[in-house]
Amino acid sequence: MKINFVPCDFLDIEEFVDEYEASLASPIDSFLEDHVMESQCFAIAMDTVYIGYFSVYDKELLTQFYVRKPYRSLGQEIFFKIKRMKNIRCAFVSTGDEFFLSHALDEYRTMEKQAYFFQDAKDLIKEGKIDQTIHIRLAEERDMEEVVEKSEGFYDNLEESIWNQEIYIAEKSNRIVGFGIIENGSIMRNYASIGMYTVAEFRQQGIGRNILLMLKEIVYSNGMKPIAGCWYYNHESKKTLESAGMYTDTRLLKIHY
Predict the structure, then answer these.
(1) What is the distance between the alpha carbons of residues 71 and 236, in angstroms, rounded to a whole number?
(2) Residue limits of the N-acetyltransferase domain (predicted)?
(3) Are residues 104 and 132 in the same domain?
């Protein structure tokens, strides 16, 4: 029996990626998805049979590790070989990915809490918490300069995001009070990641919560489920997401070797 790693792209192993998605206890958000999609992907072959895959970001960060159940007795052997052969120094692991997490924890040096992943509790929001005077609209190319100015450079790849119709502008009394974003999942195809940014002078007024509520409605109307994420130590963002009916029971960990 010989284990080999074969460079590939996600189209080559789409069946494995679908199995991986189905195996998760909870979904991953666009932050981790972006790292996965920008990673180098390798199929895991046992002799001539493909039994799983893994992906490596920036030549040292392991972002996925999946092996089919009939071959999981080889999981530790394969994982140690990946770390050795690919010079893996760290891993991004969702706590909702039990298989990857268990192997990532077998031998590690240090661990960081990187982010929270959120899902929608579908709780009814009290009427007094909903501001009917806030409206959102899709951002257009002509809005780009103002989005950059008022969001203080918050968004990466803004031009591409506007072109993809992912950025929303929130207005109240004809003034821009914040921005939203909806990113459809690349791996989690039934989910869309939502996020918001409140213009500094309008913070602590429930703007962020109302933007998230409207973004959730748009996602549901598109036949998808809203998810979200925030940096583990961004306490204000966590509070805002929870006030919009989101909850977190999943963490993103960065594990170092």
Answers:
(1) 43
(2) 134-257
(3) no
- The domain that contains 208 carries what CATH number? 3.40.630.30
Token pair in block for residue 16? 């494995």
- Contact 154/184 with Cβ under 8 angstroms? no
**pLDDT tens-digit map of 27-65:** 999 999 999 999 999 999 999 999 999 999 999 999 999
Q: How far apart are CA 255 and CA 107, in angstroms?
A: 10
Buried b (16+ CB within 10 A) or exposed e, 139-162: beeebbeebeebbeeebeebeebb
Of 44, 73, 108, which residue constitutes the final position of a domain?
A: 108
162 is written with which tokens?
Answer: 């506007």
Q: Are residues 27 and 49 in the same domain?
A: yes
DSSP assigned state of 126:
P
Residues spanned by the domain of 30 = 3-108
User: Distance from first CA to last CA of the chain, Å, rounded?
Assistant: 27
The answer on 239 and 131 residing in a single domain is yes
Instruction: Calculate the average pLDDT of the chain.
Output: 95
Q: Determine contact, residues 187/28, Cβ cutoff 8 Å.
A: yes
Reference 114, options 253, 233, 256, 255; nearest CA is 253
Q: pTM, whole model, 2 decimals?
A: 0.92
Of residues 81, 68, 123, 110, the one with CA closest to residue 254: 110
Helix (H, G, I), strand (E, B) or coil at 1: coil
